[in-house]
Amino acid sequence: MKKSPPLKMICLLFVMAVSIFIQGKAEAQTNSSSTNASSSQFDMTGFPQWAKDLRRGEIIAFGSFPFAYFFTNFTIDTFRFATHDWDRRYAPWPIKSAGSIELSQKEQFRNLGIAASGAVLIAVVDHLIVRYKRNKAEEKIRNLPAGTPIIIRKPLDETGGD
């Protein structure tokens, strides 16, 4: 019976393929957009707020996933180690020996699902915090006395103009 490739290797290849695809798509968009742009920074001024929030959530979820996956694996390995009377065959990663009992494919998928759920939860919590701060700032502006000038300061252009 042929042994299938490990789940971690398949996930790594998938993440690499997606990142290469996204990077290629971003380069194609920059090449097709105006070549006379003075800045290589992406301008988000034309997008609605929900799209900006969704993009921020995506970045946070994908950024926190590796940490969530590591902590999920470590926590579940430690739990298995404790429930099997501290048997060295079930030890977590740093003290795992050569004859250790590996997780089944079902358990690996469970860990992946828990880590993905944790990453999405972190993104949702961040969204709620940012939304709360935004609402507080808007409420503060609404509560200003009528006729109060609102001064918005922004830095000068790099070229020195307004």
UniProtKB/TrEMBL annotation:
Transmembrane spans: 112-130
Residues making up the signal peptide according to the UniProt record: 1-28
Keywords, ordered alphabetically: Membrane, Signal, Transmembrane, Transmembrane helix
Protein name (Swiss-Prot/TrEMBL): Uncharacterized protein
